[in-house]
TrEMBL record:
Record Pfam families: Beta-barrel_SelB, GTP_EFTU_D2, WHD_2nd_SelB, WHD_3rd_SelB
Residues annotated as domain S1 motif: 33-102
Protein name: Selenocysteine-specific translation elongation factor
GO-annotated molecular function: GTP binding; RNA binding; translation elongation factor activity
Length: 474
């Protein structure tokens, strides 16, 4: 009766979520290949699924399944399962390996945990050699005590397990510890961080983080991850890091955003979150960089997007950085162009000295009409330093004051439009035109007439037929 009551109180393992099956046996069956067995901890396995074997990093396809020696098309969490996997050699998998959904788990040799020592055990010194048992894995390692030099019998503390082989763990997994020699059970613990970084001992920030992971609210755990990362994190990564479900993270993201604690960025079908303090700090850095850029290059449209991303957030994908720039634009911090970013209003009006030079160059090309000077000639005539010439040319082209017709050949936009109108007018009257006729029409030379017609061909105003042009656009 006591067993019956206990069975009734056991919670059913979640059939949703990623597959996780610690392997306890591996063998081959003639005609079928490699078979692994174990108890399915979470998720559902179906015939035809692609699964990953960790820590080996191998990939295989589920050919067939058995549950308690009965063939089935699907197995749920909590069941004993035999999985026939195609694409894996028997020698490649071992007891202690874990069968998982691709990308759902990572193997690590460093784990942060709350460790308990049995009352009957001997005191455990820092860096003691231990045997670590999780799932079906048995791994040697050392126990690093993070806030003391020795763990007394019957007590617990935060520790880092530094293992000799990588294991697959999830937050809140329970494990067993045994002494190196003689082999005796001395305690156990709970995994708080399944993929940890190496810590220095007696660091208050490390201990605070572990306390939050262990006892903090779900919102606290999200904020801790965002504050520690100092980067944009998607809801899936936050779910994996905090042990929350993706749905919980999305709900909490909305609440934290409403409270002004996080900035939420929609990217495609995902949500990325940033700590508001990180976002504000990033705003200041971007404003400072852009202000310095505008000061140094007053004729440029703005700071190149990709260069800005590489400088500030090199590990953030381009699409996420674009969403960040859009958010900054909506907040009035920046103006976003095709390939550049600028402070609002910057670059629209050049400095007075630059305006004077730009006006002189524009006048040269406007007055020259259909026989414009070469760029080097124009630079010399306005006495513009050669090292600054590129900036001025880029500005004139970007603002459509000048239009590039060919190699080192630029027309004033008004002259180009006038020439196009004259050529189109003649084509409408006589149906076709030659280079010589364009030369005579514009009172210019072949040097300018031919590139002009080639430009109109490229813009699909005219089309070449032999040595003549016809009107393409009516």
């Amino acid at each position: 009766k006591a067993l019956d009551r206990a069975v009734q109180e056991v919670e059913e393992r979640p059939a949703t979520g990623p597959v996780r099956l610690p392997v306890d046996r591996v063998f081959t069956v003639a005609g079928f290949g490699t078979v692994v067995t174990g108890t399915l901890v979470s998720g559902t396995i179906n015939e035809g699924d692609t699964l990953t074997v960790l820590p080996e990093g191998l990939v295989g396809r589920v050919r067939s399944l058995q549950v308690h020696k009965q063939k089935t098309h699907s197995a749920r969490a909590g069941q004993r399962v035999a999985v026939n996997i195609a694409g894996l050699e028997r020698e490649a998998v071992r007891r202690g390996s874990v069968l998982t959904s691709p990308g759902a788990f990572s193997a690590s040799r460093l784990l942060d945990a709350r460790v308990f020592l049995l009352p009957t055990a001997k005191p455990l010194k820092n860096r003691a050699r231990i045997r670590f048992y999780l799932g079906t894995a048995e791994v040697m390692g050392r126990l690093v005590l993070l806030d003391r030099d020795e763990l007394s019998p019957g007590s617990s503390t935060y520790a880092q397990l530094r293992l000799e082989e990588a294991v697959v763990a999830a937050r809140w997994d329970r494990f067993v510890l045994r002494s190196f020699s003689p082999v005796q059970t001395i305690g156990g613990g709970v995994v708080l961080e399944p993929v940890a970084e190496r810590h220095k001992r007696f660091r208050e920030e490390v201990l605070t983080r572990l306390r939050t992971l262990e006892t903090g609210s779900p919102a606290d755990k999200i904020m801790q991850q965002l504050g520690g990362a100092q980067v944009l994190l998607d809801t899936g990564s936050l779910a994996a890091a905090t042990g929350l479900t993706p749905e919980e993270v999305v709900r909490l993201a909305g609440e934290l955003a409403a409270a002004g604690q996080v900035k939420v960025l929609p990217v495609d079908h995902q949500l990325f979150l940033a700590d508001t303090r990180f976002y504000e700090d990033l705003k200041q850095k971007i404003e400072s960089l852009l202000a310095a850029h505008h000061q140094e290059f007053p004729l440029r449209e703005g700071y190149p997007k990709e260069e800005l991303r590489s400088r500030l957030l090199p590990h953030v994908p381009g699409r996420v950085f674009q969403a960040l720039l859009q958010a900054l634009s909506e907040d009035g911090v920046v103006t976003v162009f095709g390939q550049t970013v600028a402070l609002p209003g910057a670059g629209r009006v050049p400095p007075p000295a630059a305006q004077k030079v730009l006006a002189e160059i524009a006048a040269l090309y406007r007055e020259a009409r259909f026989q414009p000077p070469a760029w080097e000639e124009a630079v010399a005539r306005v006495k513009l330093p050669r090292e600054e010439a590129g900036e001025y040319l880029a500005y004139l082209l970007r603002t459509n004051i000048l239009v590039k017709i060919g190699q080192d050949l630029f027309f004033h936009a008004e002259a180009l439009q006038e020439a196009q109108d004259m050529i189109v007018g003649l084509l409408k009257r006589q149906g076709e035109i030659t280079v010589a006729e364009v030369r005579d029409l514009l009172k210019t030379s072949r040097k300018f007439a031919l590139p002009l017609l080639e430009y109109l061909d490229e813009k699909r105003v005219t089309r070449r037929v032999g040595d003549r042009r016809v009107l393409l656009k009516k």
